Amino acid sequence: MMRIWLWPLVIAQVSALGLLAGLVSDGIGDWLSWAALSLPVAISGKALAGRRRTG
């Protein structure tokens, strides 16, 4: 069961870290927030691009 939920939980934790960093910190926290919140977008984009090539 953990194999199914491992990556979605990791992505959720990284997103939560990005949201928290964006709310409470400035400077490097803004960069951390930007990087953490762009990770799910990048993963989704890669998955969609890979799906289109094979279909």
What features would you highlight for this structure?
single chain, 55 residues, mainly alpha
Q: Can you characterise this structure?
A:
It contains two helices and no strands. The protein has 55 residues and is mainly alpha-helical. Helix 1 (2-24) runs antiparallel to helix 2 (28-54). It is flat. The protein starts with a helix and ends with a helix. The mean pLDDT is 89.
Summarize this structure briefly.
This protein is mostly helical and 55 residues long. It has helices spanning 2-24, 28-54. It contains two helices and no strands.
Spell out the helices and strands N to C: HH
What does the main sheet amount to?
none
The total count of helices amounts to: 2
Distance between the termini: 29 Å
Radius of gyration: 14 Å
Q: What are the segments in which pLDDT stays under 50 over at least 5 consecutive residues? A: none
Q: Strand tally, please?
A: 0
Name the overall outline: flat
Assign the structural class, choosing from mainly alpha, mainly beta, alpha/beta, alpha+beta, or little secondary structure. mainly alpha
User: Proportion of β residues?
Assistant: under 5%
Helix content: over 70%
Overall pLDDT level:
89
